[in-house]
Every structure is written in C-alpha cells, then in structure tokens.
C-alpha cells in the first residue's frame, strides 16, 4: 500500500455518499472526513451569531475557526443548515480556508476517505480511487424526508424536494469548484440500489485499486 491511500467520494445531497464513506472507513480502517460538515460548521456559526450568510469577510473569519476535531454531526446535520451551507460554499475565500484543512487531513498517513462535492476534482485530484454517488432527485428527497420523520421532525415532502433541487442547482452551477464527476470517477447510481449493494460494489473497486 502507498504511504497515503485516499478515497474521494462526491455526489449531491442525500445520495448516500456519507453512509458509503463511513462504511468504507470502518471496513478499511481509514479515517473519514465528511467535508459537508465543514461548510455546515461555517453556516451554523453564522446562523447562531445572527450574522448574514452573504458577507464573505465574516464567512471567511468563521471558516478560519473551523476545527475538524469539533464537528458535531448531531447538531450540524439539520436540513436547514445544509441549505445555508450551500450559500457560504459558493464563496471562494471560504472554500480556500476549508480545502486547506481537508487536504491536510487527507495527506496525513495512512490517508483517508473524504466525501463532499469537489474531492475528486479539487481537494484530492490524485486520490487512488474516486466515486461519484448519485440518485434521482425524488429518491434523495424521499430519503431526507424519511430521516426527518424518524427524528420526529414534521416536514413537507414537496418542500424537501424543492430544497434539494435548489441546492443541486446552486452546487452544480457555482463558479468555484462546481459539483461534477471527476473524469476518472466510478459512477454509483443508488436510485435502485441499497447501501449494502453500493458498499459491496465500491469495496470491490477499492480492493482492485489497492492490489493493482
Ligand atoms: O454534504 P452536505 O449536504 O453536508 O453539504 C452541505 C453543503 O456544503 C453542500 O450543499 C455544498 O454546498 C457544500 N459542500 C461543498 N463542498 C464539499 C462539501 C460540501 O461545497 N466538499
């Protein structure tokens, strides 16, 4: 195995990339970073301080204070923080600060698994294996809606669907590091595939890359 082995997983909201990343990390014994949490941490800091989401200077300042050891998934996974995160994520200064942290994490031996929107294209273009995980917009909205029901949160399906579509458009349409598959990414469409099947497929590809 090379000194650092990096797996890049990209894809839109609720595609299953985070679950896949966590499963692979457990199986392979590699550290995992959900980079969406770093953008969410910036959005959460601004929302909590009643700061606007469109002031780049204030957002960069919040980004410079993000600590990878203090990302609280339970707090940050709120649906509305995800939408706010995609607004601050369009700012180049915010991205510069967070990408730097993410690269340091990835490049520390023995390597890592990172999931996000620009891992294979920008953060770790030399990753040993790249995946692009996707699913239909309806299926992703259904998953998000289910998650919210399980947490006892009342949510309107059509609102979630519209939100996810708006977030995709923002993430794919921004100038800096738009969401798109890296050229050499393996595509995994999970619309009709459960996470176990996706995991087994991904694991086979990783094992081939490790031995090849
Ligand atoms: O993946 P998650 O839904 O937690 O991401 C929240 C938002 O953070 C995304 O909608 C996207 O705008 C931004 N993001 C990004 N680049 C990443 C990870 C997340 O722009 N690598």
Q: Summarize this, please?
A:
This protein is α/β, with parallel strands linked by helices. It is built from 10 helices and 5 strands.
Description:
This protein is of the alpha/beta class and 212 residues long. 55% of the residues lie in helices and 12% in strands. It is built from 10 helices and 5 strands. The protein has helices spanning 17-28, 36-48, 56-64, 73-76, 79-88, 92-107, 119-123, 137-150, 157-173, 195-211; strands spanning 5-10, 32-34, 111-116, 129-134, 186-189. Helix 2 crosses helix 5 (79-88), helix 3 (56-64) packs parallel to helix 6 and helix 8 (137-150) packs across helix 9. The longest helix is centred in the last third of the chain and has 17 residues, at 157-173. The protein is globular, with a radius of gyration of 17 Å. The relative contact order is 0.21. The structure holds cytidine-5'-monophosphate (C5P). Residues 13, 35-36, 39-40, 82, 85-86, 89, 116-119, 167, 171 line the site of cytidine-5'-monophosphate.
Morphology call: globular
Bound molecules: cytidine-5'-monophosphate
- In DSSP terms, counting alpha (H) and pi (I) runs of 4 or more, how many helices? 10
Q: What is the CATH topology descriptor?
A: Rossmann fold
């Amino acid at each position: 195995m090379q000194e650092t082995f990096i797996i890049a997983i990209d894809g839109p909201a609720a595609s299953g990339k985070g679950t896949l990343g966590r499963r692979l990390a457990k199986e392979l014994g590699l550290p995992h970073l959900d980079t969406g949490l770093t953008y969410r941490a910036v959005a959460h800091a601004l929302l909590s301080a009643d700061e606007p989401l469109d002031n780049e200077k204030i957002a960069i300042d919040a980004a410079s204070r993000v600590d990878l050891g203090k990302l609280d998934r339970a707090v940050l996974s709120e649906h509305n923080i995800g939408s706010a995160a995609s607004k601050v994520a369009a700012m180049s200064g915010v991205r510069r600060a967070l990408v730097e942290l993410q690269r340091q994490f990835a490049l520390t031996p023995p390597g890592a698994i990172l999931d996000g929107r620009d891992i294979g294209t920008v953060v770790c273009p030399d990753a040993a294996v790249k995946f692009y995980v996707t699913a239909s917009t309806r299926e992703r909205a259904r998953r998000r809606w289910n998650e919210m029901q399980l947490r006892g949160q009342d949510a309107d399906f059509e609102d979630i669907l519209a939100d996810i579509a708006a977030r995709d458009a923002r993430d794919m349409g921004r100038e800096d590091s738009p969401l798109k598959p890296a050229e050499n990414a393996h595509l995994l469409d999970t619309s009709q595939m459960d996470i176990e099947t996706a995991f087994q497929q991904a694991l086979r590809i990783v094992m081939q890359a490790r031995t090849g």
